Predict the 3D structure of the following.
Amino acid sequence: MGNKKTDKVANAMAAVSNSPFKLVKSNPVINARYDLSTIQVKILLHMISKIDHTKDRLDTITISVQEFKKITGISTTAIYSRINIELDNFLKKTIYNKFDGGLINTTIIAGYTYNNGLGKFNIDFSPTLTPYLLQLKTNFTVIDIRSLLQLKSIYAIRFYEFCKESERLGTFKFEVEKLKDILGLGDRYAKYTDFRKRVINVAQKELQESSDLYFTYEERKKGNTVVLLVFTIQRNANISVPNDDIEEATYELIKESKKSIPENKEVTEILKLVGEYGASEELIQKWLKAYPLEKIKETIAYVFAEAKGGKLIRNVVGYIIQLLEDEKFAEILKEKETRQKEEREKKKKAHLEKAREEGLNMNVFNLKKKYHIYCQNRIIELLKTDSNCYQFVVSKLSTSLETQFAFESFKKHFQDVVSAENIIQYLDINPSFNGAIISIVESAYKQQIHASSEAIALQKEAKKIGINLL
């Protein structure tokens, strides 16, 4: 007796294969690099929708002229020659994708024939694509072809497939250059602004107007250059895909494809880091079985740091695998960890030293300020209570060339009225005058100012931190 779960999935695959509306497309094909016209990609999608996914070999796909009219929208009387031209060009087109599970590099179709009597074209897929078109167990996406054939832009079709593939996650992201490569743009749209305007925004606008799924996106920059695009998948409430009688079978397939590996926090954490570079859940699960989580994260961080430092890494996931398997790399990580620890200790020490110096400088500043205020208050007290002190200050201000400018400024301010009160008031108005008065009084009353108990206490405090207030 067969396994009920296996039978259920097999029956679902058979039902989808027999549906004229559903197609099953492997994710490596969805994310592969190819440069097709809108008509060619619609032919490809129609061919995939005709595949019997339960078989172990690819059959020749037969498409009538009437079908061509329907799927391509060509209504010209010269439809035969137009189809021939498209298929001739299609023969030259290749598909390429290097991913953690393997490599695709082949032409898409191997050849075609036309039967005049029947009005039908017979087209053969490249046999190399067999593993990616038949007997799919995991890593595939089920798409309703009606959602694709109504789209006019090749970019809208490709982005719809990206949205459908990541619909469960609600988001997907691409490095700008990687996305341009996948879309087969080559050297076209060298300026990002042109790429955004003519490719991304065109696809976004058409999907929003004509599709059940569309996207919004955010730009991530490195300096002034946009290097990464993060797309958020949106559901269009105004448009829905028509239902048919195999929705339950479609659901079973989607459920089976997506649950090949149970979700866990560790897989999700690593997937967020390297999922955009082609790492699958299956691969990450293998990593976690073979290596500690921290080693995987450190290896990924090392690869990203090298890329940021200018190293050209064409296959990020492949490089991560290479390093994980390299026993010598463990020593490199250990040495790096030692260097980082030493660097952290060095920075910590420098930070503490800087904080100590800043604290010391602040203490010095505050202590000097405190002593200055003490001296000024003591001098004000002498000016108020000791007439000899006042007379001595006035005589020094009048006769000294060093203080002449400050004294003239004082007399101008008080209209030549010289008094102890005015001198005290002007201390807070003119810093130069303030300094002159302190210097004059200190020269004659040093003992009274600097030998008090308060002054001595401040001087002792200053000595503790290595400064002299006198």
